[in-house]
């Protein structure tokens, strides 16, 4: 990995510098001005050269022009920002996890999302192993003008308790219209198709069929063998086309193989044939008009997407309106509103149980034909024949026996997709109104109100005839059921700011903001389900419950934070800049006495190119440094006991026990950061470099600590723990060629973060964060980087693996550190070339390190699915595992592979064997575009037209995780770290985008 990555970088950068030197004399284009304006915290516009901290702006064209529409702008940031780690997954409509400058808190955390200065909700929602995505996907991509990533504490200090994990600042477009002041119309349309990347799906062995032994189970009355129906593994008898066997479809009256024995051979259509080619259609129209002092823009976008799994569909409609209007020369107003209506059907189940992909990756029979399963499902689900005798269409490959067609382990995957599907609809609106009045030339006052509202209604179905499974509130095992979750979230912000700017002397000025904010958050969630199954099949309603439903699980809270802040920015001779900010927050979720706290920041920058007069060869050089503090408050209901209703008993209300001990003395968590950096531009911006070094310390974290149940609780909430992050970030821009007709730009982002859990709590050295199948857990362990994987390792003697003399298998050593999910570094290289009307771009996205535990390999190798388990005569001979006995002598104990004495998989090897390096190099994006010449459009009403062929995830150049994508994790939050289980295969997405402007 290291050699490959280094070689790639050397080749690209060396050639770029060489061409840049050759082209220097022929550069006829003026260098752009360094003093560009960027949008920072609270929507404040600043000259980029004056900033004393690192930030990185991405224009809309770099976000979306070079790739297919992912439906979530977060995933389109991958590889484009130094210090920003983006983890995407393959869950249909699922989450993307954002992480800036490493994990700062023990529970993880995502950056704050801000639109035009107002925070918006980006909550990750998961319910019963369903990933419903994060709310950033609701943002209309057509509205985005740019995204500025505020990385460090100094950049985000003005957001106080919400700035701990950095800030993503989104700026929306203003209406422009035509040069003559008339309305402008933009029509955009795109279509894309996905094709499975076969390197991210298992390669099955084709030599052995169903069973845990190379023996058939029962015999039919005619003496022929029955397949091992109730074994969800492929360690069975060797395939022989001359051997006739009664298989699962021999008992399906609708099958052409009914009552027939068929040749014992590998299936023609394996599990990969189950998946569809996902397609997405996006269409948008924008109407805009603008002139000085007033502009308007309206956008409508529709996105329709079909997923990999059959019967999965997403339909999203997005409406947005933005108006800027000067009521008087001194009174300026702005209004923006966006509304999203989204309906989704058929999101896949994640994790272990009931996940179709988990069955395909871990527990399967290689003799089972997917197309035969599909035919049987559609034939048997017909209402004319669907009944208990055929499980209402759930004809399965894993019958309990020849006489019992009930599923032993898994539903028919088509029954699962078409009957046990989930559905959800989401309504999202975000609106703000703002007015600014210029009191005098140097002072203005701004008032702003913003409102963010999200409604989610999610439904889960378990059809009659299903495999019995845990379901609903009680989590009892049932064969049918219905459940729904209704969630409402709102956030309201009231802002009042006074902007000032004064010239102290002709060469010294000061500017800044004095303001305040009131933020109110409201949350309401109701979960209810049937109990004991459904009375009538196919009717999914709470009233169709066999037993009395339990009392609804209800959660509600309202929180408020009151804030005041002040900033001062001093400009000395356009060469020296000193900034200071101070914010005070008062939180309703903390106790009196600890609920008022403040966050300072100070930054400084020096324009060395002005001082040293280096403009002939280095047209810009800045040194910067800063120190800042940010923090985070507590979740609701952690200060006092709170009780949850458990229903009614004999007319008296009963309540669940209190398991977590509250803490009336909580205080806010706090992060302190020091940063230094430099930015330099050479040869009229042909070479640009931005470097940052930072060190962050996060203390007083609010964590749930497990305690002995002997005190009456199983956990308590405390302030404890310290995490340190130290890192480097590099941005490199190159323009190897720049002429009248041809331009080549290279943008490189690279960052390295070192994380350490310095302390937890006196007497505590490990905090459990998440648990995986296979006895592996995700932990925060003192002295290690956050994200320690703990599980069983080999037992070693003088460096040799020790064999258990009783079994001949490896002697395992439990509760050992077996990996860490923290990557060594991340990076991206983007090339953009343009020649007249043609454009070409591609992005290489890279990650080095970050361990992943594969539950799929842990089980799948032992169940005999993968090709490694049937190489040559591996199963037909005894195996002596390499290693030594406890006395140090070489192992001589042989294992028979005939009866699944597999030397691979969980039965023999510890979980450490299935921890893989999560490094990857990907061709993340690529596009070829053509802008039609104006001469071709003459005489039409079209004044701009562009067509592009775009692609995403086109090539995984390198990875170490077998049969899966290292990014394809379970979901968002803690589920996005270090766990590969039942993931959908990655698709290579190719599409066509067409844009017309009238």
UniProtKB/TrEMBL annotation:
It is a multi-pass membrane protein. Residues 1-22 form the signal peptide. GO terms for cellular component: cell outer membrane. It is found in: Cell outer membrane. Residues 53-167 form the TonB-dependent receptor plug domain. One of its GO terms (molecular function) is siderophore uptake transmembrane transporter activity. Pfam families: Plug. PROSITE patterns: TONB_DEPENDENT_REC_3. Belongs to the TonB-dependent receptor family. This is TonB-linked outer membrane protein, SusC/RagA family. It comes from Chryseobacterium oranimense.
């Amino acid at each position: 990995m290291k050699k490959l990555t280094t070689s790639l970088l050397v080749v690209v950068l060396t050639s770029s510098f060489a061409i840049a030197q050759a082209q220097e004399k022929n550069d006829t284009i003026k260098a752009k001005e360094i003093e560009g304006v960027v949008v920072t915290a609270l929507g404040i516009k600043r000259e980029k050269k004056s900033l004393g901290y690192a930030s990185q702006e991405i224009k809309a064209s770099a976000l979306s022009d070079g790739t297919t529409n992912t439906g979530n702008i977060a995933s389109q940031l991958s590889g484009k920002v130094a210090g920003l780690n983006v983890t995407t997954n393959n869950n249909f409509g699922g989450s993307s996890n954002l992480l800036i400058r490493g994990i700062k808190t023990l529970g993880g955390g995502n950056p704050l999302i801000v639109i035009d200065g107002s925070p918006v909700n980006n909550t990750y929602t998961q319910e019963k192993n369903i990933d419903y995505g994060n709310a950033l996907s609701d943002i209309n991509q057509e509205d985005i003008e740019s995204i500025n990533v505020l990385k460090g504490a100094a950049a985000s200090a003005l957001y106080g308790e919400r700035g701990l994990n950095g800030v993503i600042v989104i700026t929306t477009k203003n209406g422009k219209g035509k040069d003559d002041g008339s309305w402008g119309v933009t029509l955009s349309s795109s279509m894309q198709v996905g094709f499975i990347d076969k390197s991210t799906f298992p390669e099955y062995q084709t030599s052995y069929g169903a069973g845990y032994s190379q023996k058939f189970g029962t015999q039919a009355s005619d003496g022929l063998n029955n397949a091992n129906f109730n074994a969800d593994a492929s360690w069975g008898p060797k395939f022989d086309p001359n051997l006739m066997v009664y298989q699962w479809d021999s008992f399906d009256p609708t099958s052409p193989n009914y009552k027939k024995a068929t040749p014992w051979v590998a299936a023609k259509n394996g599990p990969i044939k189950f998946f569809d080619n996902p397609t997405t259609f996006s269409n948008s129209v924008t109407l805009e008009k603008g002139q000085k002092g007033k502009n308007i823009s309206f956008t409508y976008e529709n996105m329709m997407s079909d997923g990999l799994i059959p019967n999965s569909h997403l339909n999203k409609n997005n409406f947005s309106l933005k108006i800027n209007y000067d009521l008087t020369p001194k009174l300026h107003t702005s209004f923006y509103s966006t509304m999203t209506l989204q309906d989704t059907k058929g999101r896949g189940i994640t994790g272990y149980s009931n996940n179709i992909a988990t069955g395909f990756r871990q527990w399967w029979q290689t003799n089972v034909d997917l197309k035969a399963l599909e035919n049987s499902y559609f034939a048997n689900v017909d209402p004319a024949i669907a009944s208990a005798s055929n499980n209402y269409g759930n004809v399965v490959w894993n019958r309990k026996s020849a006489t019992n067609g009930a599923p032993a382990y898994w539903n028919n995957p088509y029954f699962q997709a078409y009957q046990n599907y989930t559905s959800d609809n989401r309504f999202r609106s975000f609106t703000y109104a703002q007015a600014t009045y210029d009191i005098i030339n140097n002072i203005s006052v701004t008032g702003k109100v913003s409102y963010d509202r999200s409604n989610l209604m999610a439904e889960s179905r378990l059809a009659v005839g299903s495999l019995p499974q845990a379901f609903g509130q009680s989590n009892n095992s049932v064969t049918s059921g219905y459940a729904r979750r209704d969630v409402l979230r709102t956030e309201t912000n009231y802002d009042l700011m006074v902007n000032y700017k004064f010239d102290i002397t002709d060469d010294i000025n000061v500017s800044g903001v004095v303001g305040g904010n009131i933020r109110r958050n409201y949350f309401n969630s109701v979960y209810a389900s049937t109990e004991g199954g459904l009375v009538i099949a196919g009717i999914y309603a709470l009233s169709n419950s066999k037993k009395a439903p339990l009392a609804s699980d209800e959660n509600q809270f309202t929180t408020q934070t009151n804030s005041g802040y002040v900033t001062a920015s001093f400009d000395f001779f356009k060469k020296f800049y000193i900034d200071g900010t101070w914010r005070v927050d008062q939180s309703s979720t903390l106790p009196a006495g600890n609920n008022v706290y403040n966050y300072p920041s100070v930054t400084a920058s020096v324009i060395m190119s002005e001082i040293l007069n280096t403009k002939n060869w280095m047209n810009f050089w800045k040194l910067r440094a800063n120190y800042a503090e940010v923090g985070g408050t507590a979740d609701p209901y952690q200060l006092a006991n709170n009780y949850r209703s458990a229903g009614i008993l004999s007319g008296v209300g009963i309540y669940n026990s209190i398991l977590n001990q509250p803490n009336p003395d909580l205080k806010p968590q706090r992060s302190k950061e020091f940063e230094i950096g430099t930015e330099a531009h050479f040869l009229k911006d042909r070479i640009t470099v931005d470097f940052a070094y930072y060190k962050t310390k996060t203390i007083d974290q609010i964590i749930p600590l497990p305690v002995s149940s002997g005190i009456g609780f199983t956990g308590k909430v405390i302030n404890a723990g310290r995490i340190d992050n130290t890192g480097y970030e590099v941005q490199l821009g190159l323009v190897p060629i720049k002429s009248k007709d041809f331009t080549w730009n290279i943008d490189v982002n690279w960052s390295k973060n070192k994380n350490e859990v310095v302390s937890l709590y006196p007497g505590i050295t490990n905090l459990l964060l998440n648990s995986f199948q296979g006895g592996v857990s995700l932990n925060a362990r003192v002295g290690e980087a956050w994200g320690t994987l703990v599980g069983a390792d080999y037992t070693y003697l003088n460096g040799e693996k020790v064999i258990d003399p009783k079994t001949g298998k490896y002697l395992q050593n439990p509760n050992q550190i077996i990996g860490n999910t923290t990557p060594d570094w991340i990076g991206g290289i983007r090339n953009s070339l343009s020649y007249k009307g043609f454009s070409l771009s591609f992005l290489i996205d890279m990650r080095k390190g970050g361990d992943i535990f594969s539950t799929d390999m842990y089980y799948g190798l032992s169940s005999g699915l993968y090709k490694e388990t049937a190489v040559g005569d591996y199963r037909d001979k005894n195996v002596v595992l390499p290693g030594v006995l406890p006395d140090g002598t070489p192992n001589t104990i042989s294992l028979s592979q005939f009866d699944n004495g597999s030397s691979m998989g969980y039965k023999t090897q510890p979980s450490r064997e299935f921890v893989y390096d999560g490094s990857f190099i990907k061709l993340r994006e690529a596009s070829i575009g053509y802008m039609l010449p104006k001469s071709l459009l003459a005489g039409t009403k079209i004044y701009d037209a562009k067509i592009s062929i775009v692609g995403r995830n086109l090539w995984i150049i390198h990875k170490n995780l077998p049969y899966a994508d290292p990014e394809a994790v379970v979901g968002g939050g803690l589920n996005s770290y270090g766990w590969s289980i039942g993931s959908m295969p990655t698709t290579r997405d190719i599409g066509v985008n067409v844009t017309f402007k009238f």
